Amino acid sequence: MSQIDRGKRQGIVYTAVAFFAWGLLPIYWKALDAVPALEILAHRIIWSFVLTVCVLLVQGKSDALRLLSKKDNRRSLLLTSGLIGTNWFIYIYAVNSDRIVEASLGYYSNPLLSVMLGILVLKERLNLMQVIAFLLACSGVIYLTVDYGRFPWIAVVLACAFALYGLLKKTTDIEPMDGLMVETMFLAPAALAVILYQAATQRGALLTLSPQVDLLLIFAGAVTTLPLYWFTRGARRIRLSSVGFLQYIAPTLMLFIGIFLYRESFTAAHFVSFGLVWAGLFLYTLSLMRGAKA
Question: What is the end-to-end Cα distance of the chain in Å, rounded?
Answer without folding.
Answer: 25
